[in-house]
Each structure stands twice: as C-alpha cells, then as structure tokens.
Amino acid sequence: MVVMGSSEWHWDERYREREKVWSGEPNRVLVEEVAGVEAGTALELGCGEGADAVWLARQGWRVTATDISSVALERAGQHAREAGVEVDFQRHDLAESFPEGRYDLVTAMFFHSFVDIPREEILRKAAGAVAPGGRLLIVGHAGYPSWHEGERHEHEVDFPTPAQVVEELHLSDGWEVLVAEEHMKEVFRPDGGKGTRHDSTVLVRRSPS
Ligand SMILES: C[S@@+](CC[C@H](N)C(=O)[O-])C[C@H]1O[C@@H](n2cnc3c(N)ncnc32)[C@H](O)[C@@H]1O
Questions:
Q1: What is the pLDDT along the chain (209 residues), one digit of tens a residue?
Q2: How far is the CA of 12 from the centre of ligand 1 (A)?
C-alpha cells in the first residue's frame, strides 16, 4: 500500500480525525524501565499527545519532546499545562532535522509511521544523542495485531526483531545492551473485543567515559 501525502500532512490528519488518539497514559514499558533511574535530561522522539513526556517530567526529568505533527504537539502542550509540568516541545520531521544536544535518556516509543520514514537512520541519530552513561530506550511493534487481516503497509511488513534493532544501531564499543526482548500484551481491538500484540523492547546504555 502506498500512502500519498507528506508525513506531516498524514499525521496531522490522523490526529485531527479524533480528539484523542492515544490513551493519555504513559507507556507501561517506559514506566517499568525508567522508574528507578536517576532523573536527568530526556529526549523523546515521536511524542504524540505527550503522555510519556508528561510522566517523565513528573518524575523530575528535564524533557525535550519532538513530533512531526503540530496538532499532536498542541495537545501535548495542553496536557503538560494541565499537569503543571514544563516540557520543551519541538516540532521536527526527524528525517530532516534533529534536536541538538546530548541527553541522559532518549526514548522512541512506537516510532512507526504509515508514511515511510528512515527509521534506522533516525534511531542511529538517537544513539548519537545519548550522553555518556545515558540510555536509549526503543519500544516498538514486533508484528501486526492478532486481528489484522487487511492490507499491509510495505515498510511495516518486516517488523524488526530486538536483535535487528540493536544491530541497526551500529553501536561502537562502550555500549551495553541491557534489554533486547519481545513481549506479548493483551490489547483492545477496535471493535472493543480483546486481542494480542507482540512488542519489542531494546534498552542500551552508553558507558560513562
Ligand atoms: C505510533 S505514534 C506513537 C506516539 C507515542 N510515542 C506513543 O507511544 O503513544 C508515532 C508518532 O511519531 C510521529 N512521527 C511520525 N513520523 C515522524 C517524523 N518523521 N518525525 C517526527 N515524528 C514523527 C507521529 O506524528 C506520531 O505521533
């Protein structure tokens, strides 16, 4: 399936279709993997409506959060104001521009797109943005949902395994792989019934020196 239109147009339309696209809750794996980590600076890629960014800010992280969609970012900003936290929201098409600086935590949570994106290249930039001693957390889908029968999006057919995600980061020496695993979760299907989905988690840490 070929999706017409730019990434920005596509995602803005997707967000305009509904007042709220995501649950408003932080991703479970983010909470599990980051809850015990000392807060510092964090960069989030593809932050959507901001639930993860707000959760991180509430834990004391100084958060920069990016997305291609200004519709999503407006909602994320509203979410942060309601929560009484500050987040530096920046609009980037990460295929074209990338936030400056180095961060103690960089996250890419379900950074998938119906419009083709140079995901591996962006994730390599994400690794480059990790400060010494910092972590990169990448959570993504490892396959289509159990109920999926329709057309498959060309670039999503090969969902990378956790090992492939690690390999594609082209990490040099001085990185430690803390987690590289798949897990299954129960999710609600669009019709309200229950289904399952396989996701993958990759967490790597850059050595402190
Ligand atoms: C599947 S959503 C995940 C949103 C959020 N991280 C979550 O877990 O709920 C993917 C997000 O990536 C954003 N995105 C897609 N392509 C992008 C690009 N080229 N640059 C920046 N953000 C992009 C979309 O606007 C969308 O908000």
A1: 445 568 899 999 999 999 999 988 999 999 999 999 999 999 999 999 999 999 999 999 999 999 999 999 999 999 999 999 999 999 999 999 999 999 999 999 999 987 889 999 999 999 999 999 999 999 998 877 777 766 555 445 568 999 999 999 999 899 999 999 999 888 777 788 888 888 999 999 999 98
A2: 11
pTM: 0.92
In short, whether 94's Cβ falls inside 6 Å of ligand 1 is yes
Burial class (CB in 10 A: 0-12, 13-18, 19+), 123: buried
Q: Phi and psi of 167, rounded to 5°?
A: -60, -45
- Break the chain into its structural domains and give their ranges: 7-206
C-alpha of residue 172 to centroid of ligand 1, in Å: 27
CATH 3.40.50.150, applies to 7-206? yes
CB of 103 within 6 A of ligand 1: the answer is no
Ligand 1, atom 12: nearest CA belongs to which residue? 46
The CB density around residue 71, as the number of other CB atoms within 10 Å, is 18
**Distance set, CA 186 to CA 81, 92, 180, 195 (Å):** 31, 32, 20, 6
For the beta sheet containing 130-141, the strands, ordered from the edge strand earlier in sequence to the opposite edge, are 87-91, 62-67, 41-45, 103-109, 130-141, 194-206, 175-188
